[in-house]
Amino acid sequence: MDTIKPHDRGAAVSDVQHRLCELGYLSEGQVTEAFDEDTIIAIKNFCADHGLEPVDYVDHQVWSRLVDATFQMGDRNLYLRVPFFHGHDVEVLQSALSALGFSVGNVDGIFGAHTEEALRRFQLNMGLPDDGIAGSMTFRELNNLAHSWREKSAHTPVLNMGFARASEALELNLLCLFGTEELPRLVAARMSNLAMATNPNSRVTSADTLGVAPDDATMFLHILGSSQAAVPGVPTVEYEPSETLVLRLAQAFRAIKRKPGSRVALRLPGDCWQDAGVDRTAQHFAIVLLDAICSATLLLEDNNR
């Protein structure tokens, strides 16, 4: 590109000024299509804030940094490529994924391998094609969850809600648990038993003990063994990392509440408690998962109030 200099006029100057205005370095009244003193000051301030030598012109380097800084999430599809995508939209995507419990490593505005892995896990969690491409479907789900990530730098731990609220959560939704392998079926059965012991009016039950026919309001949780593949279109929550399990479950439940009769899958890890025996392993997972389900249910209820 040709360098844009003081005293230049025209559409190129106007484009620079509009971007500076969007970033807060100029006001709307200072967009004049003339590269004047206000524009020189704004360019120098922009350069200083973005690690460039303060200059009074716009060359290819300054222009590239201006464009990067003004990309909004959704302006373009993002995916892993060489050279890497970089810009404000990538930084927003990274911040959103991190706040939702999908670690990207450093939030640096560069779409690298860690960002792609976090994006794939988010897509799987929401029942989207886990292709690692941030496109319209991914942006729509992120915007639906905006209240959970905007202005948050990392995931917020969900505190223990106490026995009374846990008991309340068990009555809120008819949730049917099931598995098709030995360990998942045992986990589902033990979760049902624990729920009933906690609250006799619990509506969390296993498919083997479901007392009424499921209807459109029923939510289904399919517990998968570690080697079982995800079903396309079904939000699939990975058990680990356990510290963000509640957040990720809440997101998946929120997604299927818009699709009556749908299900969420939760995949157990392959190595945890492997030496403890099937019964002890099932009991461990049942306790952790039932607590996470109660917390996720109440988190959704609190967000909807």
Structure description:
By secondary structure, the protein is of the alpha/beta class. 46% of the residues lie in helices and 7% in strands. It has a 5-stranded parallel beta sheet. Helix 10 links the parallel strand 4 and strand 5. The longest helix is centred in the C-terminal third of the chain and has 27 residues. The N and C termini lie far apart (52 Å). The mean pLDDT is 88.
Question: Could you provide a short overview of the structure?
Answer:
The chain is of the alpha/beta class and 305 residues long. The protein has helices spanning 11-22, 37-49, 60-70, 88-99, 113-125, 136-144, 146-149, 162-169, 182-198, 245-257, 278-304; strands at residues 175-179, 204-206, 219-224, 236-238, 263-267.
Tags for this model:
single chain; 305 residues; alpha/beta; five-stranded parallel β-sheet; 11 helices; 46% helix
List the helices and strands and how they pair.
Layout: H1 11-22, H2 37-49, H3 60-70, H4 88-99, H5 113-125, H6 136-144, H7 146-149, H8 162-169, E1 175-179, H9 182-198, E2 204-206, E3 219-224, E4 236-238, H10 245-257, E5 263-267, H11 278-304
Parallel strand pairs: 1-2, 1-3, 3-5, 4-5
Helix pairs in contact: 1-3, 8-11, 9-11, 10-11
Strand composition percent:
5-15%
Distance between the termini: 52 Å
Largest sheet: 5 strands, parallel
From the alpha-carbon coordinates, what is the Rg to the nearest angstrom?
Answer: 25 Å
Given as residue ranges, the uncertain stretches (5+ residues, pLDDT < 50) are: none
Give the overall silhouette. elongated
Helix content: 40-55%
Which series of helices and strands comes N to C? Answer: HHHHHHHHEHEEEHEH
Number of strands: 5
Q: Helix segment count?
A: 11
Broad structural category: alpha/beta
Mean pLDDT: 88
Walk across the major sheet and give the strand order. 2-1-3-5-4
